[in-house]
């Protein structure tokens, strides 16, 4: 991979001296190669090294709270079945029958009517623990042993109500997948929340294209005018105070354009800025003032944490240039029972922002197809993006 060479021309903005104490990049850094965003062989390599090894967030556990609930998911080319047993335990399997490989569950979600998972093809029956209970043959060969044909299991962990799976043989420590430096969610009651609304979209972009976009705010003023009104610092194309090389000059201003937080009078990410309820009880004053915190577990999810609700944004790759986004809005049940609860106040705003991001990601994807685009260049504000791309590099041996 060739490095981007520094040019001799003057930068259009101010030039960094190298003495600034800030979070931004102070040297030219190349992006990942353009071809890694669409090459089918590279996509397979990333599936193998990343999506088939790391912990992946699938859904909030409350979406399958009752025994015998099931949900199915597609991760790359792999289909996964999650089932909650009579014992309350969630288990995960490849959605593949051990007889001749048919899909076991066609539906996206539902509840088993009996105690068995039955293959729709020749009707082999499995327990919710994955054991083969019965075949459909008139008789079985003497050397046929049902114990030899359980469903293929995958690792499942339900951590504070968040359901993660790992398709690798040996699962790493789940907590190691929680991005260091991402804001913590220990003060949010995530296990007590339920899903009030779900939104899905299949985007025509590589999974990294969406993450790249998530990791910078250079695009914010032109792509997200409404969001920049609510979060004024985004209007300056940065997401944190220390992204500005001269942040010390305005550190005492208290102005959200410089120090972050929501605009004057706003409490949460809603269409009018008014929170749905008083802040969750355990939040610190700083967490309340921040307006939004992000919990991140690459490569599958970020959770936007607000004072009154949370929103998980989960990404799964479906193809080199196809990525599914599924978003869950999470509320305390009592919030949704309030007479003045207005779901559209929160969903409309975030859907607008995510549609804008999806459209920007699709534009980005299209342009990277140019045969001249071997790689791009990162600007100082894109330091989170550099971290994300280094994370990808480490796992894919670049
Ligand atoms: S493939 Fe499932 S029973 Fe035959
Ligand atoms: Fe954005």
TrEMBL record:
Question: Per UniProt, which keywords does this protein have?
Answer: 2Fe-2S, Dioxygenase, Iron, Iron-sulfur, Metal-binding, Oxidoreductase
**Stated name of the protein:** Aromatic ring-hydroxylating dioxygenase subunit alpha
Q: Which organism is it from?
A: Pacificispira spongiicola
**InterPro entries in UniProt:** Rieske_2Fe-2S, Rieske_2Fe-2S_sf, Ring_hydroxy_dOase_asu_C_dom, Rng_hydr_dOase-A
Superkingdom: Bacteria
Q: Name one Pfam family in it.
A: Rieske
Where do the segments described as Disordered lie?
A: 1-25
The cofactor required is: Fe cation
Rieske domain sequence ranges: 56-165
The molecular function GO annotations come to: 2 iron, 2 sulfur cluster binding; dioxygenase activity; iron ion binding
């Amino acid at each position: 991979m060739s490095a981007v060479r520094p040019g001799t021309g003057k930068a259009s903005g101010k030039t960094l001296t190298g003495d600034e104490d800030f979070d931004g990049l102070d040297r030219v850094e190349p992006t990942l190669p353009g071809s890694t965003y669409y090459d089918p062989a590279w996509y397979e390599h990333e599936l193998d090294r990343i999506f088939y090894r790391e912990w992946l967030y699938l859904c909030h556990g409350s979406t399958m709270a009752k025994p015998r609930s099931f949900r199915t998911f597609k991760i790359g080319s792999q289909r996964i079945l999650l089932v909650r047993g009579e014992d309350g335990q969630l288990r995960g399997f490849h959605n593949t029958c051990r007889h001749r490989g048919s899909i076991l569950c066609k539906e996206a979600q539902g509840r088993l009517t009996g105690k068995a998972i039955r293959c729709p093809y020749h009707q082999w029956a499995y327990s919710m623990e994955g054991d083969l209970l019965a075949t459909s043959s008139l008789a079985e060969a003497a050397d046929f042993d049902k114990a030899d044909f359980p469903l293929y299991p995958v690792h499942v962990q339900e951590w504070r109500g968040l359901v993660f799976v790992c398709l690798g043989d040996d699962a790493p420590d789940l907590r190691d997948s929680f991005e260091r430096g991402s804001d913590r969610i220990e003060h949010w009651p995530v296990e007590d929340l339920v899903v009030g609304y779900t939104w899905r979209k299949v985007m025509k972009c590589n999974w990294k294209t969406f993450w790249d976009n998530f990791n910078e705010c250079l695009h914010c003023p032109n792509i997200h005018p409404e969001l920049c009104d609510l979060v004024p610092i985004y209007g300056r194309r940065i997401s944190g105070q220390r992204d500005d090389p001269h942040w010390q000059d305005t550190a005492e201003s208290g102005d959200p354009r410089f120090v972050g937080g929501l605009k004057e009078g706003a409490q949460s990410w809603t269409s009018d800025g008014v929170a749905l309820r008083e802040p969750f009880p355990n939040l610190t004053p700083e967490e309340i003032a921040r307006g939004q915190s992000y919990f991140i577990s690459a490569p599958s999810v970020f959770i936007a944490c607000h004072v009154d609700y949370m929103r998980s944004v989960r990404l799964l790759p479906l193809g080199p240039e196809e990525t599914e986004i599924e978003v869950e809005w999470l509320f305390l049940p009592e919030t949704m029972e309030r007479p003045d609860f207005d779901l559209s106040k929160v969903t409309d705003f975030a859907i607008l922002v995510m549609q804008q991001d999806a459209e920007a990601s699709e534009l980005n994807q299209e342009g990277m197809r140019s045969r001249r685009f071997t790689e791009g260049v990162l600007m100082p504000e894109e330091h989170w993006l550099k971290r994300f791309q280094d994370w990808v590099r480490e796992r894919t041996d670049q």
